[in-house]
C-alpha cells in the first residue's frame, strides 16, 4: 500500500505487528482513532505504556498481579495443598469462572515448543519444583493438576512435568480430555472419542 | 472478567474500545505485548500518539497528507478536470490500485448517516462545491464521479450530492453497480442483478 502520509504508515506498521491484525485491519483502526477525539488515542497509548512498564508478577505463582503476591496466593480460604498448573493468565481466569477449583495456581508463562525455541528453561518450572521441595506454600503440596491445552505442545509440557515431578511424592493429575458437554458423538473427532473411551469413568464403583 | 491487575484491566478496556475488538481479543493483544520486549510497546504507543497529534489533511482534497497539499493534488500529470468523490483514505488507495483513474480526488470524510448523527454539514461538501465554483483547481471541473459505497448511506449521499451539483454545469456520474467480475449470475442477489440489467451497456452504439 502507498500511504499518503508517513505518520499513518508508521502507525499501521506498528499496529499490524500485533497477532491476528493485518495491514487492512490496522489501517481501519488507525482511521478510527483519527476520527475520535485526541484524548482517546492518548488514553490508549498511556494504558499500554503503563501496563508494559509497571506490570508485576506474583513471586509465588507468577500470575500477573498488582502486588508482590497475588490475591489467590495470599488467600487463606484457598487450599494450598493443590496446585493447578496453567499456561497463562487467561487460563486462570477461565478456571476461576468455572467455580470448580478452590486450590492455588502456578502460571508457567507458556508451553514447551521447540519450533518457537521455547524449552523448559524458559518456563517457570524450577519454581514449581521449589514450591513442592522447599514448602514455599502455606501447606505441603498433595496434588499437582496439569491444566494445559490438549495440543502437541501442551501434551509435551504435561509429559515433561509428570516426569520431573515423579519422585516428589505428590499426586500428579491432568484435566480430562473427552467430548465437550453438549457435544454430539457423531461430530466428535476420532482421537477425542478414542481418548474418552480409554479414560472412561466407572459409574458402578464410584 | 475479574482481572488480577488494574494495569491489565485499563489496557484491555482501552484496546476493546477499538471497533471490532472485544474483551477477549483485547486481553490476547495485551498479553502478547507483555511477552514482547518493552521497546515494542513504546514504539506502538509513540506511533499512535504522533499520528493523532501531527496528522495533516490536504487543504484541497482533504485526504490525509504529510504536507499542506497532497501529492495527488500537487501533481501536474493528473487531470484536474475530473474529481472522484470518495468516503475516506482507504477508497483513494483502492481506486489508485486499479490504475484506471488519472483525475483528482475529494475525500468527504464519511457519508450521510442520520442514525449516527452525520449530516451533510459534517462532511466536506461545501469545499467540494467551492472547488467547482471558485475554480480552486488548476483547471475548470468537467466531471464529478461519485464513488461511494453501494449502501443506503452511500446512495443517500450520492443522491444529495447529485442534487447539490445539479446547476453547476458539471457532469455528475456514479460508478457502475453490477455483478462483480468473476461473479456468477445465479449467485448474484436480485437487487444487484436487477440494477445491472437496468444500467446495461450498449455494445452496438459504443
Plain-language structure description:
Two copies of one chain form a homodimer. With 206 residues, chain A is of the alpha/beta class. Chain A has two domains: 6-54, Orthogonal Bundle (Helicase, Ruva Protein, domain 3); 57-174, Dna Topoisomerase Vi A Subunit, Chain: A, domain 2. Helices cover 41% and strands 12% of the residues of chain A. Chain A contains eight helices and six strands; from the N terminus they run H-H-H-E-E-H-E-H-E-H-E-H-E-H. The first copy, chain A, has a four-stranded parallel beta sheet. In chain A, strand 1 (56-57) and strand 2 form a beta hairpin. In chain A, helix 1 (6-15) crosses helix 2 (23-35). The longest helix of chain A has 17 residues, at 38-54. The relative contact order of chain A is 0.08. The model of chain A has no long low-confidence stretch (mean pLDDT 90). Chains A, B: GO terms for molecular function: DNA binding; zinc ion binding. Chains A, B: Residues 81-180 form the Toprim domain.
What is shown here, in short?
The structure is a homodimer of 206-residue chains. Chain A is an alpha/beta fold and 206 residues long.
Short descriptors:
2 domains; alpha/beta; homodimer; Dna Topoisomerase Vi A Subunit, Chain: A, domain 2; globular; 8 helices; Helicase, Ruva Protein, domain 3; 6 strands
Topology (elements, then pairings):
The structure is a homodimer of 206-residue chains.
Chain A: H1 6-15, H2 23-35, H3 38-54, E1 56-57, E2 64-65, H4 71-74, E3 79-86, H5 89-98, E4 103-107, H6 126-133, E5 143-146, H7 152-164, E6 171-174, H8 190-198
Parallel strand pairs in A: 3-4, 3-5, 5-6
Antiparallel strand pairs in A: 1-2
Helix pairs in contact in A: 1-2
Domain Toprim (chains A, B): 81-180
Pfam family, one (chains A, B): Toprim_4
Zinc finger (C4-type) (chains A, B): 58-73
Amino acid at each position: 500500500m502507498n500511504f499518503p502520509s508517513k505518520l499513518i504508515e508508521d502507525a499501521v506498521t506498528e499496529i499490524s505487528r500485533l497477532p491476528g491484525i493485518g495491514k487492512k485491519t490496522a489501517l481501519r483502526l488507525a482511521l478510527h482513532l483519527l476520527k475520535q477525539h485526541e484524548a482517546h488515542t492518548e488514553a490508549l497509548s498511556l494504558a499500554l505504556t503503563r501496563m508494559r512498564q509497571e506490570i508485576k508478577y506474583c513471586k509465588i505463582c507468577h500470575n500477573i498481579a498488582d502486588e508482590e503476591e497475588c490475591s489467590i496466593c495470599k488467600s487463606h480460604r484457598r487450599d494450598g495443598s493443590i496446585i493447578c498448573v496453567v499456561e497463562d493468565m487467561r487460563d486462570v481466569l477461565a478456571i476461576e469462572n468455572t467455580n470448580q477449583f478452590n486450590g492455588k495456581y502456578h502460571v508457567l508463562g507458556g508451553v514447551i515448543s521447540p519450533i518457537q525455541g521455547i524449552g523448559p528453561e524458559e518456563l517457570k518450572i524450577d519454581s514449581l519444583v521449589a514450591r513442592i521441595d522447599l514448602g514455599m506454600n502455606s501447606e505441603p503440596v498433595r496434588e499437582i493438576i496439569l491444566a494445559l491445552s490438549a495440543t502437541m505442545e501442551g501434551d509435551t509440557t504435561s509429559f515433561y512435568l509428570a516426569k520431573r515431578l515423579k519422585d516428589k511424592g505428590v499426586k500428579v493429575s491432568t484435566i480430562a480430555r473427552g467430548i465437550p458437554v453438549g457435544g454430539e458423538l457423531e461430530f466428535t473427532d476420532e482421537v477425542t472419542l478414542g481418548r474418552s473411551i480409554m479414560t472412561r469413568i466407572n459409574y458402578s464403583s464410584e
